[in-house]
UniProtKB/TrEMBL annotation, chain A:
Classification of source organism: Bacteria, Pseudomonadati, Pseudomonadota, Gammaproteobacteria, Oceanospirillales
Protein origin, superkingdom: Bacteria
Name assigned to this protein: Cytochrome C
Pfam families documented for this protein: Cytochrom_C, Cytochrome_CBB3
Record's signal peptide: 1-19
Gene3D superfamilies, per database record: Cytochrome c-like domain
Keywords, alphabetical: Electron transport, Heme, Iron, Metal-binding, Signal, Transport
Cytochrome c domain residues: 60-148, 249-333
Amino acid sequence: MFRLVKNALLATAVTTVLATPGMVSAGEKYGFGTTATAEEIQGWDIDIRPDGKGLPAGEGSVADGEELYEQLCATCHGLFGEGEGRWPVLAGGEDTLTEERPVKTVGSYWPYASTLYDYIRRAMPFTAPRSLTDDQTYQLSAYVLYLNEIVDEEFVANKDTLAAVEMPNQEGFFVDPRPDVKNNRCMKNCADPAKLQIVGTLQGVTPVGHFVEGADAPAASHQAQEEKERSLHGETVEENAADTLALTEDAIAGRETYDNACQACHSSGIAGSPKFGDKSAWKGRIDQGMPLLVEHAIKGFSGETGMMPPKGGRTDLSDEQVKKAVAYMVESSQ
Amino acid sequence: MSNPIKSLSTRELMEQLARESEGLSISDRRDFLKKGMLAAGAMTATTFAGTAAASKNLPPMEPSWGRQLGAGVVDKPYGQPSAYEKEVVRRTVPWLTAESIASISMTPIQDLKGIITPNGLVFERYHAGVAQIKPEEHRLMIHGLVERPIIFTMEDLMRFPSVSEIKFIECPANGGMEWKGAQMEALQFTHGMLSCCEWTGVPLRVLLEEAGVKPEGKWILAEGADGSHMSRSIPLEKALDDTLVVYAQNGEMLRPEQGYPLRLLNPGWEGNTSIKWLRRLEVGDKPWYHREETSKYTDLMADGRARKFTFVQETNSVITNPCPENPIVKSGLIEIEGMAWSGRGKIKQVDISFDGGVSWVPANLKGLVLDKALTRFSLVTKWDGQPWLLQSRAIDETGYVQPTLGQLREARGTNSIYHKNSIHSWKVEANGGVKNVQIS
């Protein structure tokens, strides 16, 4: 009896203690996190708005943009913005938006020039985002507008001139009006069976090898597709045996750099780059000797099949890191 | 249980449809049906007999796995699916994109059960590959039109009371390859940009209250920490309603592919707005019109003008059994099964048609029926080799009825890429094979 009473008292006491800190009054804040400083915000606040809010100081001309564009952008987007392979087309396409196959480019579709600066600043060049200076971003914005014949060759982009550019398709957008169709829950005689049209599937464009025996369908991965395309051209790609090779210490050290930087292009052979593990693509290069290969990787190089920007655009990498990454690629591709 | 194909007139209709689609005469068609049935039956028998003859693991024999020991605990500290499930994987359609780093893969929804997508099978969409983020160095910054700009560590965020909610996430381009015609020969590619998980995190409302949104604040810019720094403008109304800042899915921390260690989740809205690797939220008075809400994720209409801020994933559904990957292998009873979902709320009803949309019968919803979550539907019926033109039609709690492809095309043309939520059609052939077709 005494014991029971004691336990009951203890339970009451515990409940009271627990309940008190559990109460949070309305409107009370948690107070978690730290107040962001102006400097911290400035470093990350990269966005631009159509009214020019966010555009930094600095400027860039069409002429300077042309040089930079050819160095950094043309391998994917084409010299005139026409787009290589399946990479985005940047220029042209005027008056195609109502056609069967519209060409949506900066000039034919984008409503605001500010978006160009914002996007280049946050995501381009593809292999080295956030590597451009504010001036370089102005230069490239100016040049892409020039490619679209929206500005003339004298144009210099800055926070005032860029925000003032009027894009051809600025009025081409309107707010989502959905729901825009109204179907009814009909249960019987909902359509005239005599008028039904049945259209089959366009065959041969879907990877179906996983469930259709003997299907000669497109490859199911980008790598497999590329190998298939190569084999159609009579080339063979050796199996990537990197994991089973005995790599040198330099090469092992270079693997991380490769994974974080080089593989963006070299894993799939973007922009004519020799693909990791592709012995035939690497042989001629390796034959020239490591010092020259490393020099090209560090300083940049334009070859027959493509263009290697200095350090692949990753100028934040040290020469030593690039050298080791080259060693990793070479040893894995011979 | 019901068998909707019973009236003679319906069967006649089906034969007429089959004839039109295959150019066969009625007598040819009947022969074809018979042959198809024989072939299917023979194939099935051979397959099973073949397995039985070769195996010593079937009754009356004792299976080998019952006569030996298996691996012990923590043999695999993180468990993996059975080796026999190696075909249940994400797949891509490589010609869609230039390479794999800015690309998309699809969930094998043809193989999944229930409404939860396993973490390793959630569809992928990257614009600069998978960011590898050290959680102790990840930060979420909230600033702009707020009383107090704040930087949160992951530890800070996980101190807030958490919520867990089951929501689907879908790319608005799901099905987008088929505006002009059917071209995907598999369910994984027609509807696989779709997953559903239990997400755990903090309501964005709580974090915004913490920062104190100024009265002029109307929009939020959400931005990722990956190489694309993906950004979308989101109306404050949504942010204060049901948007979550998420750090876990299906009980474990987010997968890198899904934005580890932190992502946004806008339930029912196009997946692109649910920014992964979330690092920054800025409050502003106007939208930003960034690339992913102008050049992309706008819906081009036939007249050359485009819809913007088309956020909602409208009511949709698809039959997962049968489907091209899951043909009917035996005649007799069959459960027609599928999934329905709506970005506006709960699924109220799903109907099924066996004749290309001429007549419909109600299916049953089964399991959990949740707001903005995948919902399973089911109808048990009988198949005896007759051709079917199978369709499902979902209705959500707002009364919206999933439209036909013809209705969508009439309203929007065929160049809008996104938000194709029309009724989908499978043609079940006499041998039980299933083909993707479009009916108009």
